[in-house]
Amino acid sequence: MPIITDTNIPHNRPDIVMMDKEQSQLNNNGKGFIIDVAIPLDENMQKTYTEKIRKYQDLKYKITQMYKLSSVSVIPIVISSNGLVHRNTKQGLPTSLWFEQCGTTH
């Protein structure tokens, strides 16, 4: 589902978007995350990671403005078709998301 914005943004369909709008309304300190998953061949992992970061910069800026968030991070989750995980995916994911606030399934 595309993210609706007031201007035309070509890359507006990330896999997951998370926003802490409640914090933003309280003290303009809300955070947002644009998460996109890719499964490239081993030799294309770095290219894919870089492309995901570049691709969502306009959407990142627009979401920050629209929802008055203090920051929005683009988090590419890149896992190769052979199961290799990009090194930046492993470093950035656990510290960036507020898993304790997310629902769980049993």
UniProtKB/TrEMBL annotation:
Protein name: Uncharacterized protein
Species this protein is from: Cacopsylla melanoneura
